[in-house]
């Protein structure tokens, strides 16, 4: 496995753990303050969509995969 893919996986796992904790706190706060918390869903969804597109582009980019096939 190439080093850059391993680093990408580790970063994704760390971000996912952080997002899980943050969403737990967010949902707990939404119980007490429903309307202001609902306003935060739009930026959260936008950030999640951008991260999804960046990771998908990184994994599907054939130009980056070209260098994985070169013998070292």
Indicate the mean pLDDT.
81
Helix content: over 70%
Instruction: Please state the CA-atom Rg, rounded to the nearest Å.
Output: 17 Å
Query: Which parts are unreliable, with pLDDT below 50 for 5 consecutive residues or more?
Result: none
Distance between the termini: 14 Å
Q: How large is the share of residues in beta strands?
A: under 5%
Task: Give the topology string: H per helix, E per strand.
Answer: HHHH
- β-strand number: 0
Query: How would you characterize the largest beta sheet?
Result: none
What does this structure look like?
The protein is an all-alpha fold and 72 residues long. 85% of the residues lie in helices and 0% in strands. The radius of gyration is 17 Å and the shape is elongated. The two termini are 14 Å apart. The model has no long low-confidence stretch (mean pLDDT 81).
Blueprint of the fold:
Blueprint: H1 3-32, H2 34-39, H3 41-60, H4 62-66
Short description:
With 72 residues, the chain is mainly α. The protein contains 4 helices and no strands.
Structure keywords:
single chain, 72 residues, elongated
